[in-house]
């Protein structure tokens, strides 16, 4: 009897159980669990760290390798977006300006 179908199902059930446990972990206690101040302060930066971990490889890598040339549309778009963010402190404006610089360079010039 071939049980090769069983491993994917067990993996999915195991991953679902682990996800459910880790997401519901803070709902299990009846009262709030006290956290140290340093941990609360550190958790404020978790979303920013996760976003940087997703975006940074997309900026500096192509096909799993570091970009080997400075003639890449992402670099001027990144520079403009960073300068705009530090000038205006607007997330939507930063995204819009970065894409406004990236798209013409990428599509029109083929960078």
From TrEMBL:
Short name of one Pfam family: AzlD
Membrane-spanning segments: 6-30, 42-60, 91-109
Keywords: Membrane, Transmembrane, Transmembrane helix
Keyword Transmembrane helix: yes
Protein name stated in the entry: AzlD domain-containing protein
